[in-house]
Amino acid sequence: MPDQGQTDLATSRRRLLAAIAGGIAAVSGLFVVVVSLVLCANYIQLTRTDPASDRVVQPLRATLQNQPQNQVLRDQIRQLDLLARRALFSSLALERQGAYLLLGSAVLMLIALHSNSVLRKQLPQPASSGSDNFVEMNMLARWSVAGLCALVAIAGVILMLLTRREIAQLFPPGLATRPAPGPVAAPVVLRPDPAVLQPTTNVVAAPAVPAVVLPPPSRAAVLSNWPNFRGPDNLGIAYCRTAPTQWDGISGSGILWKAVLPRQGHSSPIVWGSSVFITGGDETGLEVFCLDASTGALAWRSRLEGTPRKIENLNEDNSYASSTPATDGNYVCAIFATGDLVCLRPDGTRLWIRALGVPSINYGYAASLIIWRDRLIVQRDAGQTGMLLALNTATGETLWETRRSVRSSWATPALVPCEDRVQAVLSAAPLLAGYDTESGKELWRIACMMGEIAPSPAYAAGIVFAAQEGCGIKAVALGSTNVLWEASDDVPDVASPLALTNLVLMATSSSALITCFDGPTSTIVWQHEFPKGFYSSPVYAAGNVYATDRDGMTRIFKAARSFELVAEPALGEPVVCTPAITEGRVFIRGTNHLFCIGSK
């Protein structure tokens, strides 16, 4: 039997451990209460926060309407809007991190209380007759406090989950893919408005004509053109042998032609054969334009009938025509911030119109279209729900639609080959996911995104890259449910990343940095800072990367593992759109002109 000294030593150790456990429980409980209060305050702030309706920015926007040429005021609004969005992202991150801390501290408190209880039971108890009642009351009080702290922790977590900007993550409605049985969601033709402006020269106002189903173009034809935003498959790669690197928009050197568009907009140009297609729109009208690629002459313009529905909370960096159209050489499709979708033949003859309705989305709708074979793919993520649609390009009928439990997104799907199929890869908080272009079935998903997503996904060598300033860049092996690697610094909030075989490039709007990663490993290969940031997405052509900053200066550098500047030609006016590049030519939309760079 152990002697009295050993017994006393063991008792002292138990008392010490019990005291330590009690102290840990007390500190953990206090931490639970403090974090819960912080989360409650943050929740209240989030429910009152809307970057699109900030009380400081709104008066400036009203002033800008009366002074549309005030560039200083425009830049000031951009900076305030950026700060507001960053504050929103920080609050969302705080909610998530706070919930994890809350749960961890609550679990630690319960473990410490349990340890304290077990250790105290092993200590000698006083001989007093009331000792048992005292111990029971003491333990009851401790566990009551513990239960109260646990309830506070749970309440804090629930507040985080019930934040109106995160509610889609709490109650995912599941996949709701359904094929359209025949004429469901038939094309809706907008009725003419008596207040419509009189047609001008070259306006195509013909009524819808019977559908003529044409075979899709060959893969070689798609790759030799620039059919949608960021070129073939929305991946930012021009499949050409040569592309110009020297021009001056002010002197006209290297400029084949420049044209004034009848209406302004932020959509990027697309090119097929001898035609350039682009859109424009404002509160008085929405139009699709076709220009001759060799001369810049306006071939035709097609206007939607009626006065556009007014768009609330339209950001000054957005417009009625921010979505880039798409073509396959047989059809030209365009969508506007009003949700109106139109399809025309390359000669301007109208085929059909769909009125999808004005999306409930801050800053205005801006996702672009993409065509795959006989179908038009439309990403329509707005509010707390989302939808991916496939429409028959010849008729406008819905082939399938897939409901998505995501928040608002301004990104455009990227088309990625996978075994015997092509999938559309979409980015919208919280999901990075792939969908079968034939059926709309969700193939894989990973909940790794957060915030308001504008950059489109990139893809190369089996890896998908998705970026957003608020959550960093995530690299995911195609079809995987795990993040391969991620980085959080110097991530774009507008421009889409560009992925090449072993390189990934990102261009930021605020820090004016271009970062080059090693694609498989996340190692930063190089970084270079420029005087002005980028809204335009970087694109690749003929061994070089073209990144056009907001002042219209295109930074051309080698697609290599070290920064090697090739040229810095200036356009002479601001640019927010992404260039279109075909063999020997670059097409860039500035604030006032559409430029064609190259030689005859």
What report would you give on this structure?
The chain is α+β, with helices and mostly antiparallel strands. The chain folds into two domains: 4-165, no CATH class; 176-207 and 217-597, 7 Propeller (Methylamine Dehydrogenase, Chain H), CATH 2.130.10. Helix content is 24%, strand content 29%. The protein is built from six helices and 35 strands. Strands 1-16-15-14-13 form a five-stranded antiparallel sheet, with no helix packed on it. The protein has a five-stranded mixed sheet with strand order 2-8-7-6-5, with no helix packed on it. A hairpin with a 2-residue loop joins strand 33 (580-582) and strand 34 (585-589). It starts with a helix and ends with a strand. 44% of the residues are buried. Residues 162-207 have low confidence and may be disordered.
CATH superfamily of the largest domain: YVTN repeat-like/Quinoprotein amine dehydrogenase
On the 0 to 100 scale, the average pLDDT is 82
- Unreliable spans are 162-207
Output the CATH class name of the largest domain: Mainly Beta
Q: Structural class of the helices, strands and pairings?
A: alpha+beta
Number of helices: 6
Number of E-state strands: 35
Strand % is: 25-35%
CATH architecture annotation of the largest domain: 7 Propeller
What topology, given as strand order, has the largest sheet?
A: 1-16-15-14-13
How many domains make up the 3D coordinates? 2
Approximate helicity band: 10-25%
Shape: elongated
**CATH-derived topology of the largest domain:** Methylamine Dehydrogenase, Chain H
